[in-house]
Amino acid sequence: MASASLQFFAFILALFGVFGDITATLLPNWKVNADVGSNIITAITQMQGLWMDCTWYSTGMFSCTLKYSVLSLPIYIQAARTTMVLSCILSAFGICITTVGMKCTKLGGDTDSKSHACFAGGVCFILAGIFGLVPTSWYTREIISNFLDQNVPESSKHEPGGAVYTGFISAGFLLVAGVIFCTSCFQRQQGAWIYPPKQHHFPSTEQESNEGYNLKDYV
């Protein structure tokens, strides 16, 4: 029962991770303009994401421009696009697989099949967490290095936006969920190895018949 409840808790974490992963991928605020120096009072807020750049005016108007050209983008944005999409796909696969492998569901067949499915789903979550952690870390590094560069004008400096923090948190949820699913399967297999099922040995009929005779009867 404890293992089933722990798997259910990991499944909830994975759901939050999947939703957060998809949200971070689609949000346009991976970086926002920094309010520093003479740029501290501004009438607009500029945001840049993986797929579009948006501008929010003080009057309440909001406009976005899609990034149609892929080759013109910096390499870290291209890598972030690819890895975040892979993270969303792997996490979705993990949800489907762990639904079959969880102990609280009636899908997946026998115990061994459910254990293998649960382990495969955990691996998908771990890979999805790694694929989500790499682009957010790389993107944050580029923002910080650009912010600390003295040659960059203050109007062109940016800070990490909400999508970056959402990506970090989602990657953490997916990693924790994957570790829980994998360790729960290992504990189940280890218990089966330590406490193997008892085998009952029944004497054969030939041995029982031979025990009824004594060698002295043939001398």
From TrEMBL:
It is a multi-pass membrane protein. Keywords: Cell junction, Cell membrane, Membrane, Signal, Tight junction, Transmembrane, Transmembrane helix. Its main location: other. It is found in: Cell junction, Tight junction; Cell membrane. The keyword Membrane applies. The chain crosses the membrane at residues 75-97, 117-139, 163-186. GO terms for cellular component: bicellular tight junction; plasma membrane. Residues 1-20 form the signal peptide. InterPro entries: Claudin, Claudin_CS, PMP22/EMP/MP20/Claudin. One of its GO terms (molecular function) is structural molecule activity. PANTHER family: CLAUDIN (PTHR12002). Claudins function as major constituents of the tight junction complexes that regulate the permeability of epithelia. Belongs to the claudin family. This is Claudin. The lineage of its organism: Eukaryota, Metazoa, Chordata, Craniata, Vertebrata.
